[in-house]
Amino acid sequence: MRKDSQLSRALHILIHLGQKPHPVTSETISKMLKTNPVVVRRMMGRLRENGYVTSVKGHNGGWSLSRSLREITLLDIHKALGDKNLFTIGFTEPDSKCLIEKAVNTQLEQTMKDAEAVLLDKFAKVTLNDLNISDSES
């Protein structure tokens, strides 16, 4: 199963933007992430809609932070990207008549909700500045 790396990619981009004194183009970001500029623009568009980045068109244009890294948490970015499920464990037949299957699904679902609540609470306490290091190469 393929892992969703959108959150880590967005965090990577935002921290780099926080270190740059000038806007960074989608093309530059796409090379850094080894992906297509369209993928970058789509993700950055969601971050712009939520007020975390701005964009300027034309020569010397690109993406810049709208807020300080100290003001942005992991939870903020998780929500801006669509608040997806953090865990991808699937359930068997949700409408099963089997009592054992229902019990298994109920317990797995509640356990994952509990674990997700702990993780989201932790996300709310970590700012992007907490992750910021002076590494201009990656």
From TrEMBL:
One of its GO terms (molecular function) is DNA-binding transcription factor activity. PROSITE patterns: HTH_RRF2_2. It comes from the Bacteria. It holds the Pfam family Rrf2. InterPro entries: Tscrpt_reg_Rrf2, WH-like_DNA-bd_sf, WH_DNA-bd_sf. Gene3D superfamilies: Winged helix-like DNA-binding domain superfamily/Winged helix DNA-binding domain. GO terms for cellular component: cytosol. PANTHER family: HTH-TYPE TRANSCRIPTIONAL REGULATOR YWGB-RELATED, WINGED HELIX-TURN-HELIX TRANSCRIPTIONAL REGULATOR, RRF2 FAMILY. This is Predicted transcriptional regulator, rrf2 family. It comes from Idiomarina loihiensis (strain ATCC BAA-735 / DSM 15497 / L2-TR).
